[in-house]
Amino acid sequence: MKVLLYTKQLKVVSKSGVGRAIEMQLDSLRKAGVDITTDVNEDYETVHVNTIFPSDYFMAKKAKQKGKAVVYHAHSTKEDFCNSFKGSNLIAPFFQKWIMKCYQLGDVILTPTEYSKSLLEGYGIKKPIIPISNGIDTQFYKKDLKKRKLFREHYNIDENRKIIMSVGLYFDRKGILDFIELAKRMPEYTFFWFGFTPYYQIPGNIKRAIEHSPSNLILPGYVSKEEIIMAYNGCDLFLFPSKEETEGIVVLEALAAQIPVLIRDIPVYSHWLKKEEDVYKASDIEEFQSLAKKILENKIKNLTLNGYQRAIERDSRLQAEKLKMIYERVGEDAKIYYGGGNNE
To answer: Which one of 112, 158, 242, 312 has the fewest beta carbons within 10 angstroms of its own beta carbon?
Structure first.
């Protein structure tokens, strides 16, 4: 069984969570012994599509016409499209129609969580939908005190100075406005927001907030995986105020690095991250401020070991084995349906 992992648009999405998920699939599936190709000219039995550009739609359609099995990965929803770049809310209904058109080409649809599965079912999609974590390499993101030292030396930050960090695009959905406001309210801490969005895509209110951000907020932009793991180790709290996610890969990364995690209390986490057991959750900016202070001052229980176990459960090696079984099953189903030959 050979699987085509369709990566034509990987460069376009490389700085997003979807791009990281594709790179993780490539690495973990090869390590799991799956016969993977990214060359569309090679023969294959199953195609796995992760993005929703027109080229992806036509690739999936072409594969079906040839009697190949199609696995479509639903990373995007209308809900996480809203409150992103300029004009996103206006075109969100059309975006929903488009992603439904794409996803329904799949013989099976994969999506990161039970929550995102429920959204897709709510759209009226009838194809089989399987929740499967994007996964992370927990060995790569493991705790490393040497990297903590390197990070602080790089930014010239004293060991006794507490650091709060987050990762994301400059979107309202990601909670960047609340993060900037928290930095203003908590000048005794240093704040880092890692991530980048092209200037022309950033809404005006966020541009203004960034331009007038406080001096204790550092915005390094997009950095390499090696630099981001140094940041996880160098900080004292990962605060993720995102208002909508299909999973949140960066949350998994922070959990794997065994640092305290404080997230917004939104439905996507309800099935796999327990409040005050695995992570802390806040509902508004006042609660974020209060809990962040208590965590940093060691006034509430440290949950990092429990959180680390949730990351281990979603290790990329385990997810690769699950994908392997899905490929085998959908491939066999396609052979039965198409008779094992071309359907042109």
So the answer is: 158
